[in-house]
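sry for the spam today, last one i promise. C-alpha cells for design, 437 residues
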C-alpha cells in the first residue's frame, strides 16, 4: 500500500523515468473495478494516503487524482509521456487519450506503453547483443547494434502497433487484464533493418515455421527464470518486407518504455508480437512456445461463443492480423461547437495486414453516413488519416460516430463484437460527444 512517504518519493523519482516506474501512484487495476468505481482496497489505500476518509467516495470517478495530491505536482504522470492515462503501475501500462493521437505520425511521447514485466535498467546500447538462433537457424550468430547498422540495409517505415486487448473495457461480462479503452494504438515511424535480411544472413532452414523473440525485461515476481512474455509470428509474417528490427522511433532513440535500444516491429498484428528490448530471436520448426503463446493469452475462440462461456484451450486460435478499426482524434469528446459553423472531424483508420477503402461519419446515431477523405498510407501497415466536416442542424447534444471499411469489404460493428474470454479484438465504432451551441 502506498502512503504519503511514497508520494513524496514520486517527486524525486519523477525526474528519472526508470525509477519513476517503481513509484508511480495511480489507480491500479486491482484498486478499480471495470466499471470504474474504486474498490474497497483502492479506497482504503486512498484514504490512508490522504489521511482522511472520503464521505462521498461513491461518487468519485476512478481516474480522479485527488486535488490534495494534484497540488503536490501530479504524481501520476510518466516523464516524457505526459498526458497518457496509467492503467497499471506494476507492470506499467498506460494508454493515450484519443485526442492526443491526432498527429499523422504518433510522436514518441504519445506512444502507449504496454509492459508485461519490468523494463531492463542500466542497459548499455553500445554493448547490446542480439543473438539469432533456434532449431531452424542454420548459422546462429550474435550481432551488436553497430553490426546490424553496417551489415544490412537501413529501412524507415511508419507502422501501426495496437495491443490485442485495446477496447477490452467494453466487454460484458468483463475480462481480466488492463482495461484499455481506445488508446492502445500508435503509428510512429521505425528505423532499423528488415528482420528477413538478418534471418537470411543466419540461414533459415526449410522446416522453419515460426520466429520468436526474447526480451531483456524481467518478470514482476523477480524470478530470473521466468519470461514476462516471449511471442512471435509465423515465418511468412517474419519474412515480410515490413517486419523490422528497429533501433529508432521517429528518428530518435526508441523511448525506454517502448523497447530501447532494440525492438521488433511486426505491424498490423497484436502488439504482443512486436518484442521490446530484444536480445534473442529464435527461428523455430514449430509454433513458438514462449510465454503467453498458449491459450488463453492472445487467442480467441475459433468459433463464436456465448458471452461468459468457458472455452477449452483446444478451441482457441492465435490472433494474427488485427481487424479494421478507426479512431476520431479531432475534436476531443465533449467538445462544444458553434452549430452555425462546420466542424472538422479527423482521425485514423487501420486494418491489420490490409488497407482502408473508406471511412464514414454519422451525426445521427447511424441513421445516415457521410463519406470522408482518406489519405493513402505512408506505406503498407501504416494507419490512414481521414478528414471531413459535419454541420449540425440545430443546437443540442450530438455524437459523431466513425466507421471504417477495409479493402476486403469488412466493416466495423456498431456494438462490441465477438465476446471472448480475454477481451481481445474489440473493433466497435468509436464515437465522441459534441455539444452544439
Ligand atoms: N519484451 C517485451 N516485449 C513486448 C512486451 C513486453 O511486455 N515485453 N509487451 C508487448 C505488448 S502486449 C504490446 S501491445 C507491445 C506494446 O508496445 P509499446 O509498449 O511500445 O506500445 O509490446 C509488446 N512487446
Ligand atoms: Mo498487447
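last one done:
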Amino acid at each position: 500500500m502506498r502512503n504519503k512517504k511514497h508520494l513524496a518519493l514520486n517527486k524525486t523519482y519523477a525526474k528519472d523515468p526508470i525509477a519513476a516506474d517503481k513509484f508511480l501512484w495511480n489507480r491500479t487495476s486491482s484498486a478499480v473495478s471495470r466499471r470504474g468505481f474504486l474498490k474497497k482496497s483502492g479506497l482504503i489505500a486512498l484514504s490512508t494516503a490522504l489521511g482522511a476518509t472520503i464521505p462521498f467516495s461513491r461518487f468519485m470517478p476512478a481516474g480522479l487524482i485527488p486535488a490534495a495530491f494534484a497540488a503536490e505536482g501530479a504524481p501520476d504522470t510518466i516523464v516524457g509521456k505526459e498526458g497518457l492515462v496509467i492503467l497499471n503501475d506494476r507492470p506499467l501500462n498506460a494508454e493515450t487519450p484519443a485526442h492526443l493521437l491526432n498527429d499523422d505520425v504518433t510522436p514518441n511521447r504519445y506512444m502507449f506503453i504496454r509492459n508485461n514485466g519490468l523494463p531492463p535498467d542500466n542497459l548499455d546500447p553500445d554493448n547490446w547483443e542480439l543473438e539469432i538462433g533456434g532449431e531452424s537457424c542454420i548459422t546462429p550468430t550474435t550481432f551488436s547494434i553497430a553490426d546490424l547498422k553496417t551489415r544490412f540495409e537501413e529501412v524507415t517505415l511508419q507502422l501501426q502497433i495496437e495491443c490485442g486487448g485495446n477496447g477490452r473495457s467494453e466487454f460484458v461480462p468483463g475480462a481480466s487484464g488492463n482495461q484499455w479503452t481506445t488508446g492502445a494504438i500508435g503509428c510512429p515511424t521505425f528505423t532499423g533493418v528488415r528482420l528477413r535480411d538478418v534471418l537470411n544472413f543466419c540461414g533459415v532452414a526449410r522446416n522453419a515455421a515460426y520466429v520468436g523473440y526474447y526480451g531483456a525485461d524481467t518478470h514482476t515476481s523477480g524470478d530470473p527464470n521466468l519470461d514476462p512474455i516471449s511471442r512471435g509470428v509465423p515465418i511468412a509474417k517474419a519474412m515480410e518486407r515490413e517486419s523490422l528490427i528497429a533501433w529508432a522511433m521517429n528518428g530518435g532513440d526508441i523511448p525506454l518504455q517502448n523497447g530501447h535500444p532494440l525492438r521488433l516491429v511486426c505491424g498490423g498484428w497484436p502488439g504482443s508480437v512486436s518484442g521490446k528490448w530484444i536480445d534473442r530471436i529464435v527461428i523455430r520448426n514449430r509454433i513458438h512456445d514462449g510465454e503467453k503463446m498458449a491459450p488463453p493469452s492472445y487467442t480467441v475462440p475459433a468459433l463464436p461463443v456465448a458471452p461468459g462461456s468457458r472455452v477449452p484451450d483446444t478451441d482457441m486460435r492465435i490472433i494474427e492480423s488485427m481487424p479494421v478499426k478507426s479512431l476520431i482524434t479531432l475534436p476531443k469528446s465533449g467538445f462544444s461547437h458553434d452549430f452555425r459553423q462546420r466542424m472538422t472531424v479527423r482521425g485514423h483508420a487501420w486494418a491489420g495486414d490490409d488497407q482502408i477503402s473508406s471511412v464514414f461519419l454519422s451525426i445521427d446515431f447511424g441513421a445516415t453516413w457521410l463519406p470522408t477523405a482518406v489519405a493513402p498510407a505512408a506505406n503498407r501497415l501504416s494507419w490512414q488519416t481521414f478528414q471531413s466536416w459535419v454541420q449540425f442542424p440545430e443546437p443540442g447534444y450530438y455524437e459523431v460516430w466513425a466507421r471504417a471499411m477495409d479493402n476486403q469489404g469488412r466493416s466495423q460493428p456498431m456494438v462490441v463484437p465477438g465476446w471472448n474470454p480475454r477481451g481481445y479484438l474489440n473493433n466497435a465504432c468509436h464515437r465522441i460527444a459534441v455539444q452544439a451551441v
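DSSP finds seven helices and 26 strands in the chain. ok im logging off now
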